[in-house]
Write a structure and sequence with these properties.
The chain is built from 9 helices and 14 strands. With 407 residues, it is of the alpha+beta class. The protein has a domain of 249 residues. Strands 1, 2, 5, 6, 7, 8, 9, 10, 11 and 12 form a 10-stranded mixed beta sheet that branches. Helix 4 runs parallel beside helix 8 and helix 5 runs antiparallel to helix 6. The longest helix has 24 residues. It is elongated, with a radius of gyration of 35 Å. It starts with 11 loop residues before the first helix and ends with a helix. This is Mitochondrial ribosomal protein l37. Keywords: Ribonucleoprotein, Ribosomal protein.
Length: 407
């Protein structure tokens, strides 16, 4: 057989495998130099330890990158071992108004608003302008944004097509601002000069009740202030009126338990300015943001409780800043009006804050007046391409005029 060049070739892969196998069997023999150095007590160092330099990487801040979020654990600067029950804008109470009365030591002395409020003011010629405001706020604005997903309780898995239009926040802002502007044109100039409007305010009020630490952190979408505080409404003793009973539930149920918080009383308006006294609080209710803790629909009773808690937070933070930290029974009651709306349904309430001592259930109590939710209209939409406004109710503008003119 003739030997060719092809048969003399070797398999490269098998050659390398054999080479690695042979080299893996080689044992490392001790160095003679190392033994001599050890005999003479000369220290031996590894080269990698000498050549390696300990360097700390420098943190470079690049403009445009978000910083890392602070971990919400014990390393957080606002961490506290004591549990705090907090209430924010996106939460409602389980028992609604009944539970809010127990927390804030508040009672109702009568149904509806007080009789001293004048609801029979003339609104001749104003209805047409109010209708124009409703249409311009709900239909004619140029904003076109993606609206929240449409959900049907009977078909929870059905995926509705997304729609674009005016957002809930935009409708509320346009409606309230234009209604207040219209009211300022109608009332006396002297009344308007004594008023001021503040938007997007933040209020906090911490307190203790039955050894529980509670903190209200709530926002005021629009606050109407005045140069003079509102007068007291009810001057009789309220100690004989009992609070509602919510047993076996505790008043802090459905409040968030948190360890990260800051205890500070915050009334964001400086009391040294002329128009610092709160008169009317406008609260926006967005059903897509305000949720129940147990994923159920928010009831009317819970909306009433939200109005009371918002009013109490504003009035209490103002009273604490006005009369001092240690004040319990107020020398002069603080009266605050509240308008709670989603753009169509309006809820009117008035709070007379008499005391900040929320544990004394046998002493003086705060007073709350309220109405049912009044619809401003029944339907405002496009029907076959035409803007339609149905079921307009002028009782809402009567209440707004009465609240604005109240002194």
């Amino acid at each position: 057989m003739k030997i060719t060049h092809v048969l003399l070739r070797q398999h490269i892969g098998r050659h390398f495998k054999r080479h690695w196998w042979v080299q893996s069997k080689i044992t490392i023999k001790p160095s003679v130099v190392e033994e001599e150095l050890k005999k003479r007590n000369i220290p031996i160092y590894k080269g990698e330890n000498i050549l390696k330099k300990e360097t700390k990487p420098e943190k470079i801040e690049i403009i445009g990158l978000k910083p890392e979020p602070v971990k919400r654990d014990r390393t957080h600067p606002n961490w506290n071992d004591r549990i705090c029950y907090t209430l924010r804008d996106d939460n409602v109470l389980l028992e609604g108004l009944t539970q809010a009365k127990v927390i804030t030591n508040t009672v109702e002395v009568q149904e509806g608003l007080p009789q001293s409020l004048d609801l029979n003011q003339s609104i001749k010629g104003i209805n047409r302008r109010v209708k124009e405001i409703i249409l311009s706020s709900h239909l004619f604005d140029a904003e076109q944004k993606k609206l929240p997903k449409i959900k049907d309780p009977l078909r929870p898995a059905f995926n509705f097509p997304r729609t674009h239009g005016i957002t809930q926040e935009r409708r509320y802002t346009l409606l309230i601002s234009k209604l207040l502007q219209l009211i300022e044109v109608l009332v006396e100039p002297e009344v308007v000069r004594n008023k001021a409007i503040f938007n997007d305010l933040y209020f906090t009020y911490p307190f203790e009740k039955y050894n529980d630490l509670i903190l209200f952190e709530l926002s005021g979408d629009t606050l109407l202030t005045s140069s003079h505080p509102l007068k007291r409404i009810h001057g009789d003793n309220t100690s004989y009126i009992n609070l509602p009973d919510i047993q076996p539930m505790k008043e802090t149920i459905t409040l968030n338990k948190e360890h990260i918080y800051r205890l500070q009383n915050c009334y964001p308006i400086d009391l040294t300015i002329p128009k610092c006294h709160p008169q009317t609080l406008f609260v926006h209710y967005n059903p897509n943001e305000v949720k129940n803790a147990y994923e159920e629909e928010v009831t009317e009773n819970q909306i009433y409780g939200r109005s009371l808690l918002k009013s109490f937070t504003v009035a209490a933070s103002y009273a604490k800043q006005l009369y001092g930290e240690s004040t319990k029974d107020l020398p002069k009651p603080v009266t605050l009006q509240c308008v709670h709306t989603d753009g169509r349904l309006f809820h009117f309430g008035i709070l007379q804050l008499n005391t900040l001592d929320l544990t004394n259930v046998t002493g003086m109590k705060n007073i709350w007046y309220q109405t049912e939710r009044l619809p401003l209209f029944e339907n405002c939409s496009y029907v076959q391409g035409r803007p339609i406004l149905e079921g307009y109710n002028n009782e809402v503008i009567r209440h707004l005029l009465a609240f604005y003119n109240n002194i």
